[in-house]
Design goal:
Acylphosphatase-like_dom; 89 residues; EC 3.6.1.7; five-stranded mixed sheet; Alpha-Beta Plaits; alpha+beta
Length: 89
């Protein structure tokens, strides 16, 4: 299992970004979390197969219809930092 942390910038808060990210992650078989950051970004931590993480990253650039994503930054994360299921916070 591989894990990655994504930082998503743009109009990504108040547009159901975290909820739809959870739905997409679960459909890909990933576990982790999505949370709003104080600086306006969304942090997504996810773990699972590399191909599923790549698919999630591609989806993060689009997000829900009301989102306007300007950047997605990906960094490696330890899989032990990820719990079961996928939660938003």
């Amino acid at each position: 299992m591989t894990a990655a942390r994504f930082f998503v910038e743009g109009r990504v808060q108040g547009v159901f970004y975290r909820a739809t990210t959870r739905d997409k992650a679960l459909s890909l078989g990933l576990c982790g979390h999505a949370r709003n950051l104080a600086d306006g970004r969304v942090e997504v931590l996810a773990a699972g197969p590399e191909a599923a993480l790549d698919a999630l990253e591609a989806w993060l650039w689009q997000g829900p219809a009301l989102a306007r994503v300007s950047a997605v930054r990906r960094e490696a994360a330890g899989p032990d930092a990820v719990g079961e299921g996928f939660v938003t916070g």
